[in-house]
Amino acid sequence: MLLTTLFSLPTSMALDIDDEGRMLVLYDGTGTRQVNEVAPDGTWRALTDLDDTCHGARFVPGSSHVVVEHDTGGDERGQLSLLDLDEPGLPALTPLVHDSEYIHRLVAARPDRVLYTTNRRNGVDFDLVARDLTSGRETVLYDGGGWVMGVDPSPDDKWVVLSKASSPANSMQLLLVDTSSRSVVELTAEDAHNDQGPVAWLPDSSAFLVSSNADRDRMAIRRYDVSDGAWSDLLVDDARDLAGWPSPNGEHLLVGVLQDGEVGLELHRLDEGAPLVALDLPAGGCAALTMATPDPIWSPDGSFAAITYNSPVTAPTVYRFVPGGELTALRPVEVPVELPHPESLRVPSFDGEQVPVFVFRPIGESLGSTVVHVHGGPEGAAMRIWSPIISALAGEGHTVVVPNVRGSAGYGKRWYSLDDRQLRLDSVKDLAAINSWLPTIDADPKRAALWGGSYGGYMVLAGVAFQPELWAAGVDIVGIASLVTFLENTSDYRRSMREREYGYLATDREFLQEASPLSRVDDIRAPLFVIHGANDPRVPLSEAEQITDALTKRGVPCQVLVYPDEGHGLAKLTNRLDAYPQAFSFLRDHLG
User: Which of 180, 246, 256, 521 makes the best surface tag, with the fewest CB within 10 Å?
Assistant: First the structure.
């Protein structure tokens, strides 16, 4: 089966590079993502072999140690452990920061300490903590409250930039922390409708670059100078989103350029006081590099960068890029079948807006059926990236339509704001527009199913509930059945950020109820296939239970799979190979 073949292909993801040119990568050849070391000569060594997924790792400079972040059963409560590269074979993991009730996210490792964020103070707010690796003493650098989602220390360790979720939907506030005095400067307003992307310091710690849509529709590369507190635009493109990563030697700037689901990667010369000059990447470049994968990582001397590359026909693979030289895969993965690239089209919606969609044509004989595959978020985006599920659906003979309905990122601030709060159901209306449009691509609207995970799962349930006459079936993965019970039962630290997008329980409960698929469950007649992880900290298992219970009582065909060792989605290969073939069989039965 094509699905099994594609899921079984290993993927890799870049994490860190040390002074000797060694790399840390996540590699899932064992069925879960584990930390591996890649020596300068290309030799690989496994450093972890856990039952669960590893999320990150950093070299401790000037030592043989590596800090690893890992969780249990997909619960997303990261724990930090230390291993010694000098140990022969598979190094033992020694607990460094462990408390299974709370989250600990690895930020950075320095010669004498480790920086991490944690919500252990009250379960809601994230503090920034520095832990001394010799004494074990901890110093809190920031405890000002809020969900700190990004932390970027300056090279000289005098400053830290915090990216914190702010009050408007899909917005981030930037804070500058003095690590000596712990004083905090608000670089952007807490109530500003600004998204902020990757932050990258210049080598001398005098300034940092950030991807930001402050005062504009698209993400530009902006510069903040610490000495005078001045902002300036470094690189702006009114039609595309930009992000930048300067090299530690101050010579180059890697620029990611996002346009219609693809991220091109450009190399620029970064000479102080001189204009940026674009340089050509080697043949092929990284035309499908996506901001959904890790940022490019420069070696400490700036001689090369590790880039995680993928495309609809290329599994995620770490490449070594030398400016002016080669782009070389560390461990190439050969895809044994020819997979399709999508067409990029636009669908007219109910109010004249144009919904971007990617269309994957069937591989081989067409069944005449369609699967509309909706991304999560809702502030996420469907990208032209590696997706075994989408490719395998096309391999089954389905036409696969992958939309970026209103509310999706990647098409400007205006577009991702069109589904906020009271506008929620307008994004669901985009699904109806897609169904009506299907005959223009020779697809049968009466044989169309919805597939989605997380917020995409909400869209599946909303589609079959609010448009019951349009959809023949639905596959809901960790989806939201009721916006009310979801907000009531999601993890405490997530609630405030989710309310800013969907609406507030205290003031918007009536609308949240009206926009919930569960409120229209009596209208659902399409058969449903539901997948959920028992340890999901984002969308509780109760969301799957209440929708499947209600449909079962009404006699609507409904199958549910619950995995006790998974969280928000399926991370383990064994569970994917169990669940997804059953979902494919379900679609064959109901679309055939």
Answer: 180
Task: Kindly state the helix (H) or strand (E) to which residue 26 belongs, with its residue range.
Answer: strand 23-27
Q: From CA 526, how far away is CA 448, in angstroms rounded?
A: 11
Tell me whether the omega of the peptide bond preceding residue 378 falls within 30 degrees of 0, making it cis: yes
Instruction: Provide the residue count of the chain.
Output: 592
Q: What is d(CA 583, CA 532) in angstroms, rounded to the nearest whole number? A: 13
DSSP label at residue 490: S
Q: Quick one: average pLDDT of 416-424?
A: 91
How does the average pLDDT of the chain come out, rounded?
A: 93
CA 521/CA 465 separation, integer angstroms = 6
Short-list 33, 87, 20, CA closest to 59: 20
What residues contact 353, with CB distance under 8 A and at least 6 apart? 406, 418, 430
- Evaluate whether 282 touches 327 at the Cβ level (below 8 Å): yes
The runs of H, that is alpha helices, within 62-221 are none
Distance CA 361, CA 370 (A): 10
Tell me the pLDDT tens digit for each residue of 284-328: 444 444 455 678 999 999 999 999 988 899 999 999 999 877 788
Interatomic CA distance for residues 296 and 286, integer angstroms: 11
Round to whole Å and give the CA distance between 590 and 587: 5
Q: Residue 582's CB: how many other CB atoms inside 10 A?
A: 12
| pTM, to two decimals | 0.94
Strand pairing class (528-533; 558-563):
parallel
> Is residue 13 within 8 Å of residue 7, measured between CB atoms?
no
Encoded amino acid at 544, one letter: A
For residues 501 and 483, the answer to whether their CB atoms sit within 8 Å is: no
